[in-house]
Amino acid sequence: MTATHPTHGHTAKRGFAVGLMVFGAVMLMIAGILGILRGIAAIAEDDVFLSTPNYVFEFDLTGWGWVHLILGVVAVIVSVGLFQASTWARVAGVGIAGLVIIANFLSLPSYPVWSVVMIAMSGFIVWALCAVRKDEA
Prior knowledge:
Helices cover 72% and strands 0% of the residues. The protein has helices at 8-43, 61-83, 87-106, 112-131. Helix 2 packs antiparallel against helix 3 (87-106) and helix 3 packs antiparallel against helix 4 (112-131). The radius of gyration is 19 Å and the shape is elongated. The relative contact order is 0.18. The mean pLDDT is 82.
């Protein structure tokens, strides 16, 4: 008599992979919405932002607002694709999160604490989207 034992490890791996994908999608959507709000505030030239005259990467606040607004909109669109477990969305999500890291690094003098928070958040997004292998997702 041969008994077939279910493999619990495979279902646990799949559950972990799905959880990471959902984590990455939710975090990317939050980062996108926050990027949209930051972009709108910068375009409106809100008093929240600092002005540092002696910084190497000195750009106009309105220009940074448009950069963050566009990255935020694209991040929200890509996060919708991540909820559908699309491979293109994983690749685009890593790319967008990388661009968000770069944009926040370059805009450090305008809003330093928030830029560091967004860099860390985007790092977690990259980790969540890269940690799952294709066969597990």
